[in-house]
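Hi again,

Forgot to attach this to my earlier email, sorry! This is the prediction with 1-deoxynojirimycin bound. I've pasted everything inline since the attachment limit keeps bouncing my files.
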Amino acid sequence: MKQQETFSQDEQSGKWWQQAVVYQIYPRSFQDSDGDGIGDLQGIISRLDYLKKLGITAIWLSPVYKSPNDDNGYDISDYQGIMDEFGTMADMDELIEKAAAADIRLIMDLVVNHTSDEHRWFIEAASSPDNPYRDYYIWRDPVEGEEPNGLRSIFSGSAWGLDESSGQYYLHLFSKKQPDLNWENQQVRKEIYDMMNFWLGKGIGGFRMDVIDLIGKQPDLELTANGPKLHDYLQEMNQASFGSYDVMTVGETWGATPEIAKLYSNPARHELSMVFQFEHVTLDQQEGKEKWDLQPLSIRQLKEVLSKWQTSLGNQGWNSLFWNNHDLPRIISRWGNDQQYREKSGKLFAILLHMMKGTPYVYQGEEIGMTNRPVKAIEEVEDIESINMYHERLAAGFPIEEIMTSINTKGRDNARTPMQWDDSETGGFTTGTPWLPVNDNYHEVNVKQALADPNSIFYTYQQLIQLRKENPLIVWGEYELLDTADTIFAYYRKYHGEKWLVVANMSEESQTLELKDKVKDQIISNNDSLTVEAGNVLLQAYDAFVVRV
Ligand code: NOJ
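Structure tokens for the complex follow:
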């Protein structure tokens, strides 16, 4: 029977996560409390007041489970244990409790496409082809003495790792130390649902599901994303675990189109709350190539893509809004200007995104305008993805300068440098030696400075988050793109007769916007000297504002 359930479009019957603003914590780099140079759970607890002040209502916590850290926690060796460097289960319980007391829900990262090769299941599985755990992973015989097929790892090289003792290959779509789980095995699925229930029982606010679009893969067909059973698995997971809780679930879904997004997030289908899709952040890579193959961003395309996502889900799907995360470069360095216009362009990106429909995510440090940290040589790089790509491209004959430009533009370490809290040594992140150097600009760019300056980016974020809490128009309103010059991004939001206009000059040139609407009042802007009235509005570099019209 076809169910009629769709999303409601108002605050009375809406879900909490449609009205939430999520803050992503990359725990390794957030706040160290014990001087080992690595952030930890007590560090996070000590900063809850700061997050409360910012106004966010949920935290997406990148993985804190036991892990040998081949991929900084995205290689899990025990889903029900806490990484030693981060603390203990008692610390975790304390964090959940104290966050709840501050009305902040804790969203755990759920990494179940793969485990670490040091997970008990894989150790068993690799011990013998007859081991009962063998089928928890994906094994194939060699073909003519070689890898079973041409599947490539997202971290470079073949996706097939040789297990010398049996002569078979196992699948790893990420690093060799991240073997893929076999989702076709019912026992694997049950173990995962049980583990999820363990965490749900602790009162967490939900899950962010790492590369969840890959779990339905068909390796023999070299098909990885959006496999035929993906949505069956998610429906089964929903029923077996979080479906009976009031939690939020967000799927990391790289290749989702709006139609695919509806499969995941249409409430009638009982899968996930929302998608986290990446179409806009792939626009500065050459089509059909890898993220390292750079091309300039076309603002016109950015407007098209973001607007398409604003209008195409209707009440049958829900989307996330973000510029940054721990896998992406810092937005100000990427598409703004991290020198002369660091604060101005930072505020512009904040205003543009936080006025859209969807659930916004703020990545730690974004709210104080943190920037990329450039490196000179590969020895300074920690991230396995960049390191593997470097060696692969070097062997393929790419010039070193070109490879280093790619790493400095797109490498993941850019956004993983420690949080800058104040201007003391290491930016107040640790009393020891930070695992990854702090960006040199911590003397000027830090939380202490931002809190002391009423005009800082921090207060723009704080104001935007507050506006979302107070104005259903931002959460539920209709979206309409205005037809303007290419580098002006302007749109309306409309709700029950109320209409707001959002305008952003995405360039360093001054330009004029012809404004037909009568302006009722100004809501927020990144330029205090700007008065917006009907007629010709002169926009300076990176000017952005919101007015009620
Ligand atoms: C996506 C995560 O965000 C990324 O950091 C990780 O390397 C891969 N999935 C593999 O887990």
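Residues 320 and 542 are 24 Å apart (CA to CA). Residues 71, 74, 111, 174, 210-211, 252, 326-327 surround 1-deoxynojirimycin (CB under 6 Å).

That should be everything now.

G.
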